[in-house]
Amino acid sequence: MSDPGVKTFWGGFPWNRFAAFIAPGADRFALLKSLTEEAGLNAVVIPIGENRHFFVFPPGQNIKAAGEFPFRGQSPVILAAHYDRVPGSPGANDNSAAVFQLLLAAGKLGEQNTGNWIIIFTDKEELLAGEGIQDQGSFGLAEKLKRWGLGKARVFIFDACGTGDTLIVSSTTGYFLKNDERPGLRKTLRLVRNLQDQALKTARQLRMDKVLLIPTPFSDDAGFLRAGIPAQTITALPAGEAAPYAGALRKHPDLAERLISGALRESAGRLLIPETWRVINSSADSPLRLTPETYSRVIRFAAELCRE
User: Fold this and answer.
1) Whole-angstrom Cα distance, residue 274 to residue 87?
2) How far, CA to CA in Å, does 236 sit from each of 11, 12, 159, 258?
3) Strand 42-48 and strand 231-237: pairing?
4) Cys staple from 281: which of 70, 83, 86, 106, with CB 3.0 to 4.6 Å?
5) Distance CA 98, CA 21 (A)
6) C-alpha 111: how far from its chain's center?
7) How far apart are CA 299 and CA 224, in angstroms?
8) Could you tell me what percent of the chain has a pLDDT over 70?
9) Distances (CA, A) of 48 to 45, 53, 58, 150, 284
């Protein structure tokens, strides 16, 4: 990080707290709570089971005394990013960068008086050995959202958005469901494609020139989907990794299925996965791999999604 521009970037709020957030043993919950307060966000922590999720509402919107949520029965845009990490990993790209990007998007949305949105920083995206999708924090969260009248929310998951100049709109859920003819899943597939269309339309409105619709590893979208709420994952890759990966998908028809199932993790085919994805959940997921010069694009994109 010897470049003066990069030094200036890391010195500004909230990035001046980034090193503490990714430090070994960091209390990420306490740090995130402090950051939402310092940013003046309308945030509340809502425990669901053993997990603690941060909800950020537009200024003036609050949970009523009876527990009724804003936007009940409506379809607000929900932007989500998980703040937990795999033990032993700094978690710089997975998923600290996206958390900080959405903190700034929340501030931007508050200034714009854009009111039909919620930002959620989710707990327990990362699963331990032996755990399944129903153990993911987003599963219990999605079930609660349905009970609170937010089952029609348009959910966009921001995960690993800290490295690269190419916006990736995940097609994983569509790929996963495309051959399932059950009526309920046909409806889910249609809703997922609506979310993809909204994401691609937003990118065009912002004249973003590097955007791909391709399969990615599952994120919090897995828990949401299992609980019955479609969600669209947004991530990023360097152009030098995104283009070869797109080519590999065309050359190897089974690559997407193997990626989604996790079959590539211990095989030679793992080298077909972009390096950015190969190093997450490891000690190599450090700030040295981040590209802060691209973050303004992600923040603008996140805020623009909420104008729909």
Assistant:
1) 22
2) 23, 23, 8, 20
3) unpaired
4) 86
5) 12
6) 22
7) 23
8) 95
9) 10, 7, 22, 16, 31
Distance CA 259, CA 279 (A): 15
Tokens of 110: 């508050």
Judged by average pLDDT, the poorest of 37-51, 215-229, 256-270, 274-288 is 256-270
How many residues are given for the chain? 308
For the chain, what is the HEC assignment? Answer: CCCHHHHHHHHCCCHHHHHHHHCCCCCHHHHHHHHHHHCCCEEEEEEECCEEEEEEECCCCCCCCCCCCCCCCCCCEEEEEECCCCCCCCCHHHHHHHHHHHHHHHHHHHHHCCCCEEEEEECCCCCCCCCCHHHCHHHHHHHHHHHCCCCCCEEEEECCCCCCCEEEEECHHHHHHCCCCCHHHHHHHHHHHHHHHHHHHHHHHCCCCCEEEECCCCCHHHHHHHHCCCEEEEEEECHHHHHHHHHHHHHCCCHHHHHHHCCCCCCHHHHHCCHHHHHCCCCCCCHHHCCHHHHHHHHHHHHHHCCC
pLDDT band, residue 266 (cuts 50/70/90): low
Q: Is the dihedral of CA 152, 118, 286, 249 positive or negative?
A: positive
| Matching residue, tokens 């809703």 | 191
pLDDT at 1 over 80: no
The residue with tokens 């998007």 is: 105
AA letter at 277: W
Select from 233, 290, 212 the least CA-distant residue to 82. Answer: 233
pLDDT surpassing 70 at residue 304: yes
pLDDT confidence of residue 3: 42
Tell whether the model's pLDDT for residue 308 goes beyond 90: no
Looking at CATH, the fold of the domain delimited by 4-305 is given as Aminopeptidase (3.40.630)
Mean pLDDT, to the nearest integer, of 261-267?
A: 75
